[in-house]
Amino acid sequence: MTPIREIAQQALTTGRLTVEAEKLIGQLLLSASYTLEDLNAYMSLQLAAMAGRVKQESLELAGANSSL
After folding, report:
1. What residue segments make up the domains of the chain, in order of their start?
2. What is the structure's pLDDT at 60?
């Protein structure tokens, strides 16, 4: 399985977190199959999302659906 840190790094590099990547991170967190390095990467991703440096596709889709 892909480590959380790889998913987070890809999102930080591209500036986008896809719905699929977000779901995969959630599954990995629920399974508790992650390292401290993965958890730190996840926290960095969360901070970047809150600061607007990473866009969450799920939120963009939710916003588009609410305007219909």
Report:
1. 4-66
2. 83
